[in-house]
Specification:
Blueprint (H helix, E strand, L loop, with lengths): L10 H10 L7 H11 L1 H5 L6 E2 L4 E2 L5 H37 L17 H17 L3 H9 L6 H7 L2 H10 L7 H6 L4 E2 L5 E2 L3 H19 L30 H10 L4 H17 L15 H5 L2
């Protein structure tokens, strides 16, 4: 068996490693308590901006409370973002069902003619079938018991993952009178000339995919703060950072959330809460760590 080169550290040794790296600790007892509740490795991710890899030391003046403060901020941020994404997700499901039902067929997901690429359609249907089969929802069982196991689109969409919804949207046929045009009309935006524009299919699908990735990060308690997010949504030219940032981060996904917002009113409440959270933690958090430009609030405003 491969012998991993790094050794397991006891809680006491973990605290000492902080001290050896120059971190200021007011109470070892409090640090040990935090490490037992959160974990040394998880907290490591919140110290990146305060740690100098070249010297293997923390920035002078770094306190353990600073690391814990960033962690607490991230937890509150994740809860706030997840709550907003839940609203976006519910609205998207309802709007997609309405868009698909213009064909007047409850089993419309089984109609390959409304989709562009047939091979991709069957791949997506495999995911649809798998996710329906995994569901224990009473309304799915109701269709098993009463309708020969056929599941209408309004029930199916409720149990599909956000990622599968994105794939379905991306493969819909476009054009006047299509389900895609009906769905995309819910997500119009203003062009530089002030015209109301329906997003291109690739753009809308990229928004859904990006928000899906952030949703899963929040749902699994992954770190959101100071993190590169490799999924890249297509954002409007007016919201792009100049010069462009070296990596994709929270700012770009927040923009995708804005474009997909369930309502203007709910989005305004979210932005205000986000702003308040940043202000309340301005002593420990950095806008740069979230890829936020200084005028981020203007970009996130509706």
């Amino acid at each position: 068996m491969y012998r991993y080169p790094k050794q397991i550290l006891t809680i006491e040794q973990q605290v000492q490693s902080y001290v050896d790296a120059g971190m200021e600790i007011a109470s070892r007892e409090d640090v040990e308590k935090a490490l037992k509740a959160v974990g040394f490795y998880r907290l490591r991710g919140y110290s990146f901006q305060l740690y100098d890899n070249s010297t293997k030391k923390y920035v002078p003046g770094t306190k353990f409370e600073d690391i814990l403060g960033i962690y607490t901020f991230d937890q509150e941020l994740s809860e706030l973002v997840f709550s907003m994404i839940s609203k976006i997700e519910v609205a998207l499901r309802a709007r997609l069902v309405d868009a698909l039902l213009i064909h007047g067929e409850p089993l419309v997901l089984q109609d390959s003619s409304i989709f562009k690429e047939k091979k991709l359609y069957w791949r997506n249907m495999a995911a649809v079938a798998s996710e329906i089969a995994r569901s224990n929802d009473v309304f799915i069982k109701h269709n098993y018991d009463n309708y020969e196991g056929e599941v209408p689109v309004w029930a199916a969409v409720e149990v599909l993952s956000f990622g599968t919804l994105s794939k379905i949207i991306k493969n819909l046929k476009t054009g006047n009178g299509s389900s895609y045009s009906f769905l995309a009309a819910n997500y119009r935006y203003k062009s530089p000339k002030g015209n109301s524009v329906i997003p291109a299919q690739k753009m809308l699908a990229s928004w859904v995919q990006a928000v899906s990735v952030l949703r899963n990060m929040c749902a699994h308690n992954s770190r959101v703060y100071n993190r590169t997010i490799h999924t890249t949504p297509e954002i409007l030219d007016s919201d792009k950072i100049a010069p462009p940032s070296a990596h994709n981060g929270l700012y770009q996904i927040l923009l995708a959330m804005k474009y997909l917002r369930s309502s203007d009113e709910e989005w305004v409440v979210f932005v205000d809460a986000f702003d308040k959270l940043i202000q309340n933690n301005s002593d420990v958090v950095s806008l740069k760590a979230m890829n936020l430009p200084t005028d981020w609030k203007m970009h996130l405003s509706v």
